[in-house]
Amino acid sequence: MNNESPILAYIEHQAPAIQAKLKQIRSIVIENAPNAVECISYGMPAFKQEKMLLYFAAFKNHIGIYPTAEGVLAFEKWTKDFKTSKGAIQIPNDTDIPEALIKKLVLHRLAKVQTHPKTKVNKCKNGHVFKKSSDCKTCPDCEKEAKAGFFIEGLAAPAVRALKANQISSLKLLSKITLDELKSFHGIGPQSIKQMTKALNEAGLKFKN
Length: 209
Known about the structure:
Blueprint: H1 6-12, H2 16-32, E1 37-41, E2 44-49, E3 51-58, E4 62-66, H3 68-74, E5 83-85, E6 88-92, H4 99-113, E7 120-123, E8 129-132, H5 140-148, H6 157-165, H7 171-174, H8 179-183, H9 190-202
Antiparallel strand pairs: 1-2, 2-3, 3-4, 4-6, 5-6, 7-8
Helix pairs in contact: 1-2, 2-4
């Protein structure tokens, strides 16, 4: 167990055949953002410098890169050979890691988080007042209320938003999609998938084959 790097500790638990690629991604980020801090967020390896730069994670058939929705859109021409969704790029396990693309994503995200945007005071439709330094209008109080009444207890806010955006409001509806379909939703990470799989199993259900 690696006690110094949370990302290396994560990598040690992945399939041997994919560990080298995960370490390669980590090295690219460290080389281009040497002051970024390693962490695990939403069950995924991530790098943070003032704000999150990007996340990445290993799945059965691919490695997911998550440079935010803005990051994916900014490099749309560079990602045409990969499957993408809002905020996510899928690198098949049998494909070489696109070093140039990841470097560009890291430098782009670094430039974005270092602009130091001014904190804005927002008010949501339910009357909650909150401050954010981004253009994101998501109300944290509304998110807490939504999570409290959601059909899977303890699910992270991005996963709750992803399921709601795809009109999945019950375990029965969740069981009607495949695991690959779920993984394509922006905001769904390995930890959330574990929670959903457990909830389905406890209800005698499973993902669609």
